[in-house]
Amino acid sequence: MKDTDGVFHVAAWYKIGARDKSPAWEINVNGTRNVLELMRELKIPKGVYTSTLAINSDTKNAIRNENYHFTGKHISEYDRTKAEAHKLAKQFIADGLPLVILMPGLIYGRDGTSLSDDSLRMFLKKRLPVIPKVSAYNWSHVDDVAQIHITAMEKAPAGETYIVGGPVHTAEEAFEIAGKLTGIRKPLAVPPVLLKITGLFSAIAEKIIPLPPMYSSEALRVQAGATYLGDNSKAKRELNYNPRPLEEGFKDVLFYELEKIRNN
pTM for the whole thing? Predict the structure, then answer.
């Protein structure tokens, strides 16, 4: 970091459904503390820290803004540890660190590595059996998220926090769009209660045998009707944030992934 004009702290532990969750605190919380302490020591002129809408956990269909503060129990270890890291970043800002906080939502893109990216590839292979009803997210194309990071470094006032999620869609709506683009039938949408019941059985099974992350009790809990929603109007107003519509983003990602599947 020495002699740099600015620092982006984007790195995090993000493994919904991982059997071993022990690295989460060390990376997300202590790692963030290490980065921010060094920025302060080196007197870095500007920093951008990548938080997440997940710090608010399930918003229960409410679209929250930057002033909202969640005080309940988080439904995943990722959510919990990123919430602690967000709180830490706020403390550093209060102590004078010239930092901007960005809060993306669900990020999708070419060669993505999250469970949602895995679900899209399973859908394209016609191997995704079900999708959750009710569940909803701010769907953000990775290029839009990258660009708003650059904009925030260049233009955002130090000390500000911005929600930079994309357009809001339920999982059902997202896969309907994917189906119209590709001609692949949308998977069966199941009510949250079925996923919650399945999650109870997964919680028992995973104590004995390792389960794929997508079918872990934690992943099913996150999918069972949870909504991770945020209001991006502040970023639009102050930073000219203009995330692309989901259909446009899916055209880029889905046909790229389909080509890879056909070539393999």
Answer: 0.94
